[in-house]
Amino acid sequence: MSHTCRAIIVHCMDFRFITGLTKFFTERGLFGDADLVGWAGAGKAFLDDASREFALKQVELSHALHGTTEVHVVAHIDCGAYGGSAALGAYDQERAFQIQELAKVKAIIADRFPQLVFVGYLAQLADGGVSVENVDLPHA
């Protein structure tokens, strides 16, 4: 294999997060060492029947073509694909919901690709920038 990278990063297509996520993953040595995938809702595509196989195919291709060993999925607060904060309740409820969604995504990916390491993140707009936290995921 002539060109490899460490990970695939799946993030929401929301333009408000791109600069902050680029900075976050650059500081961790992943930007430039990862395949990047962005679509509405990030992990939501793995959970919807209509898009699950497409989303999993992207992970499969990243692993097969570039030897990736990690899957990083970034959910975020106020995600329009889920109806935004207004649909998800108070911040604590929304945070818990997004973490549960990430746990479900982790289980789906682990079932198909048990050899890959999964890392979940929750991002939010904060102080004119983006705050990203690595989240501990419960079992789905």
Order of helices and strands: EHEHHEHHEE
- Low-confidence parts lasting 5 or more residues at pLDDT below 50? none
Structural class: alpha/beta
Global outline: globular
Tell me the number of strands. 5
Query: What's the mean pLDDT score?
Result: 93
What's the helix count? 5
| CA radius of gyration | 14 Å
- Order of strands across the biggest sheet? 2-1-3-4-5
Which key terms come to mind for this protein?
25% strand, 5 helices, alpha/beta, 5-stranded mixed beta sheet, 40% helix, 140 residues, single chain
Overview of this protein structure:
This protein is of the alpha/beta class and 140 residues long. Helices cover 40% and strands 25% of the residues. The chain has five helices and five strands, in the order E-H-E-H-H-E-H-H-E-E. A five-stranded mixed beta sheet has the order 2-1-3-4-5, sandwiched between helices. Strand 1 (7-12), helix 1 and strand 2 (34-39) form a beta-alpha-beta unit. 28% of the residues are buried. The model has no long low-confidence stretch (mean pLDDT 93).
